[in-house]
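Progress against Task 2.4 (sequence-to-structure conversion) is shown through the following example record, which the project officer requested during the mid-term review.
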Amino acid sequence: MRAQFVLSEIGVGLRRNLTMTFAVIISVALSLALFGGALLMRDQVSTMKDYWYDKVNVSIFLCNKGDVTTSPQCTKGAVTTEQRNQIEGDLKKMTTIVETVHYENADEAYKHYKEQYGDSPLAATITPDQMPESFRVKLKDPEKYKVVATAFAGRDGVQSVQDQRDILQNLFGLMQGMNVAALFVMALMLVIAIMLIVNTVRVSAFSRRRETGIMRLVGASSFYIQMPFIMEAAFAGLLGGVVACAMLLLGRYFLIDHGLDLSHKMELVNFIGWDAVLTKLPLVLAIALLMPALAAFIALRKYLRV
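C-alpha cells generated for the chain above:
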C-alpha cells in the first residue's frame, strides 16, 4: 500500500467532514480529559489517605470532674491516678500494634484548644479544668483501631475512644463521589464520541462510494479500501488525545503550582506530583488512538459495502 495514497485520502476525508471531525476531536478530548482527571483524583485520594492515616492518632479521653454529671461513661467519677497509670501501662504492653503513646494533661489540652479556637466566643468560657486528659496513641497499623477501642472503651476513667480517621472519612467520601461523577460524565462523553466517529465514517464512506466502488472492481482488497477511513478516525482521535493531555498538564500547573496555587494555600494537603500526571499521558494517547480506529473498523463492516 502506498503511503502517499493513504495520506491523500486522509486529507480528503478530513476536509470533506471538517465540522464533524472537529466535533470528534473535542468530544474525545473532553472525555479523555475527564478519564485522566478521574485517574488522578483516585491517586490523590490514595495519596492523601496514605499521608494522613500515617499521621492520625487514636485518642483515649479520660473522665474529668465535669464529665461526672454529663457523660454516662463517667458516672463513677473522674479518672484516678491509679486508673491512668493502668491505662498507660496496658497501652505500652501492646507493642505489636502501638508505636508511641503520648499523655496530654488538662493544661496542655487547654493550650492546644486556645491555639486552634482562641478567636471563637466559646473559647472565652472554657477553663483548663474543663479540658479532658487524654492519651494520644500512634498505631503501627491504623487499621488496628478496633483493637484499642475494644480494650479501653467502657473502662473506669475512660470517657471515650476516638479514631481521628473518622474526621477524614467525610472528605474522602466526598472526593470519591466526585470521582464517580467524573467517571459517569466521562462514560457519557465517550459514548457521544463513538457515535460521532461512526457517523463521520458513515458520511465519509457514503460521499466516496463511487471511488470505493471502482477500487473494488479493479481488485483492491477490503483492508486497502478501509485503511484511509480508519486512519482518518485514528488521526482525529489522536488530536483529541493530545488536547486531553494538554488539558491535564495545564490543569495540574494552574490548579496546584500556579493560578489557584493550591500547593501553598493548602499546605496540609499532600498533592500528587508531576510524575503521577506524566504516567497517565501514554494511556490517554493509546486510548485516543485505538478507540476511534476500532469504532471506525466496526462501522465500515456495515457501511462500506459496494
